[in-house]
Amino acid sequence: MTLVETFSGLPDSRRGPAKRYVLMEIVVMAVCAVLCGADNWAEVADWCRDRQQWLRERFGWSLKGGTPSHDTFGDLFRVLDAKVFEERFRQWIAGLVGVVDGCERNCWAGSLSFKPPCVEAPPSAFPNKLPRVGYVA
Q1: Which is nearest to 104 in space by CA: 86, 85, 124, 84?
Q2: Are residues 36 and 8 in contact, defined by beta-carbon separation less than 8 angstroms?
Q3: Residue range 37-75, pLDDT digits in tens
Q4: All residues at 6 or more sequence positions from 25 whose CB lies less than 8 Å from its CB, including other chains
Q5: Closest Cα to residue 12, out of 1, 29, 24?
Q6: Binning pLDDT at 50, 70 and 90, where does residue 98 land?
Q7: What's the pTM value of the predicted model, to 2 decimals?
Q8: 32: Cβ–Cβ under 8 A, 6 or more apart, which residues?
């Protein structure tokens, strides 16, 4: 399953000007940016702006209005249903590794026949650097 397929059809409660960007596109852009090391919404926005051509070519998006600002990313993820996002993200990850449940329990014990070369430590060894989804300060 692709990222686009994974995040297509997310419930969208935005109205008016907030719908300037396609929900699925914003979410996919954010996921790509975070996976590439973006630590906050400003870095996500910068990553997307710097890679507009790649995003157009890879996903076939027009991006006529450019890419969203850091405020747009933050606003969207504050109202996005965190449980739905997590469920979809876990589905996508499960498809990548071929495991539906128990990866955190089993993959570090050597139960998977393949480990990506970047995986050298259990998830608990990494600080939580992802922007918080569904969080309102």
Answers
A1: 124
A2: no
A3: 999 999 999 999 999 999 999 999 999 989 999 999 999
A4: 59, 61, 63
A5: 24
A6: low
A7: 0.70
A8: 3, 47, 48, 55
